[in-house]
Amino acid sequence: MRRPASTILLAASMMLCACAPPPASTAASPKPAYITVVIQSDGNVTIDGEVVLKDDLEQRFNALKEADATVIIAPEQNADKKTFVDVIMLATRTGLVDKMGVIGGT
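-> structure tokens emitted (106 positions)
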């Protein structure tokens, strides 16, 4: 039994498609950076465990924004409410509000 040439070409192209590996991605998808900002009950603020002076927070938040980091703000129980509001407002001013979350509470 003789098959038409179109059937043979279709079968050959299907075999090639099934055997060819998918193209490799040139850019690895980076994992998101999650940075934890803790407002401690004594009024100190830490970024990933490092105490940061309140005067240095804006610079650090700007760097986090440039790094496209997701910021999790976690006030400790009985954290200073004014410090909490100040940190939220600073994060908002520096543009972190789109990638910011709050867990816990005062």
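The first helix runs from residue 5 to 19.
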